[in-house]
Amino acid sequence: MMVDMLFNWEIYWRLKMSPExxxxxxxxxMFQVTEGTPEDLSKAIQTFIQQAVIIGEYELDSMPxxxxxxxxxxxxxxxxxxxxxxxLIKILKSNDII
Length: 98
Prior knowledge:
Helix 3 (39-57) runs antiparallel to helix 4. The protein has helices at 9-14, 19-28, 39-57, 65-76, 82-94. By secondary structure, it is mainly α. It has one domain. The two termini are 14 Å apart.
């Protein structure tokens, strides 16, 4: 797996969403994956977004790390999405998630 050694599970599980972040999840319900995206990547993105919405709706503390792990693993398979993958990893690192 791509980030097994990088991922700090303990920090990830302690994260909590702010009320502002939860409000933004309502907008996420309308997100759609761009047409032409590979099927497995599209499914990984949609699954991640659906889980983010569930977390907001049920006010859960965190998302099981497997959803992020799966998204990163699938993204890593496609060199054409390398910049997006690296940007996501940069964001995760800057927030001490990995």
